[in-house]
């Protein structure tokens, strides 16, 4: 059930290095960003908007019945972009929870977007995210697969202790692939974007370490699968194969 105090924001820009213009690349007859918007809407937990600096992205979203908010072009990260969009959409402060869904996840499961809300029921948690057990041998050592190192915080839930591109934890046992989807308390997002880049963040090239180094708590729900992140032309072709059956069912009203 949609909550009036929850906002899903999807940051999107055209200037991707490996796949320029990727939000507007077509998959099954629709721009990729529209697939993401529809899946976010199918989660059914709150208002959905795209935060972008591109008039072309905004126009594509709106032409398919979605909502888009224009932001500055100089934001260093998607977190900064969604914070600006939040202020535009809700200057009065009525939104309590903001979910950041990356605009290059056209196969993200609506149920997984819903799952990220659960840890915020614990007032000690500032930010929540997702993880999945690594099942492919090559992913354990792949630096492009970010690992979440955590301790149990309940059923299918971890409290994050660290994020790394290295193979961790050591020795036998499960490792967890971090999925870059976040839910923030409003005050946590405001605090996070005000922090300077941290030493471990810069070393690992992982923004979420800034929050941990500042003493913020991040919990993760463990889900069954990792959505495809579209970063390269090969990824795009994979997404087209996966979604060959057609776009998600939601019809966005105009």
Overview features:
2 domains, 11 strands, Spore Coat Polysaccharide Biosynthesis Protein SpsA, Chain A, disordered C terminus, globular, 24% strand, two-stranded antiparallel sheet, five-stranded mixed β-barrel, 254 residues, alpha/beta
Distance between the termini: 21 Å
CATH topology of the largest domain: Spore Coat Polysaccharide Biosynthesis Protein SpsA, Chain A
- Tell me the number of helical segments per DSSP (H or I, 4 or more residues long): 8
N-to-C SSE string, H for helix and E for strand: EEEHEHEHEHEEEEHHHEH
CATH class of the largest domain: Alpha Beta
Largest sheet: 5 strands, mixed, barrel
Q: What CATH architecture of the largest domain do you see?
A: Alpha-Beta Complex
**Average pLDDT taken over every residue:** 93
Shape: globular
Oligomer: single chain
Polypeptide structure, described:
- The protein is an alpha/beta fold and 254 residues long.
- It has two domains: 1-104 and 229-248, Alpha-Beta Complex (Spore Coat Polysaccharide Biosynthesis Protein SpsA, Chain A), CATH 3.90.550; 109-226, Spore Coat Polysaccharide Biosynthesis Protein SpsA, Chain A.
- The chain is 28% helix and 24% strand.
- It has helices at residues 32-43, 55-63, 78-89, 110-115, 186-194, 199-204, 208-213, 233-242, and strands at 6-12, 26-27, 30-31, 47-52, 68-70, 97-100, 127-133, 147-154, 157-164, 176-185, 218-222.
- Strand 8 (147-154) and strand 9 (157-164) form a beta hairpin.
- It is globular, with a radius of gyration of 17 Å.
């Amino acid at each position: 059930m949609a909550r009036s105090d929850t906002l899903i924001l999807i940051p999107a820009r055209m200037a991707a290095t490996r796949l320029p213009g990727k939000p507007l690349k077509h998959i099954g007859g629709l721009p990729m960003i529209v697939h993401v918007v529809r899946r976010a809407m199918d989660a059914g937990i709150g208002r959905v908007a795209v935060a972008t600096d591109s008039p072309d992205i905004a126009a594509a979203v709106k032409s398919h019945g979605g909502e888009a908010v224009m932001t500055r072009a100089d934001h260093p990260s998607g977190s900064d972009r969604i914070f600006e969009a939040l202020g535009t959409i809700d200057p009065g402060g009525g939104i309590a929870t903001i979910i950041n869904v990356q605009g290059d996840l056209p196969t993200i499961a609506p149920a997984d977007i819903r799952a990220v809300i659960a840890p915020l029921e614990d007032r000690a948690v500032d930010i929540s995210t997702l993880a999945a057990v690594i099942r492919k041998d090559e992913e354990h050592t792949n630096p492009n697969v970010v690992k979440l190192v955590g301790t149990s915080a309940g059923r299918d839930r971890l409290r994050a202790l660290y994020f790394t591109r290295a193979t961790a934890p050591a020795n036998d046992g499960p490792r967890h692939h971090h999925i870059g989807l976040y839910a923030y308390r409003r005050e946590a997002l405001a605090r996070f974007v005000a922090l300077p880049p941290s030493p471990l963040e810069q070393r690992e090239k992982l923004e979420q370490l800034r929050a941990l180094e500042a003493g913020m708590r991040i919990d993760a729900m463990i889900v069954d699968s990792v959505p495809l992140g579209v970063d390269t032309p090969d990824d795009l072709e994979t997404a087209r194969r996966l979604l060959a059956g057609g776009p998600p069912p939601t019809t966005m009203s105009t």
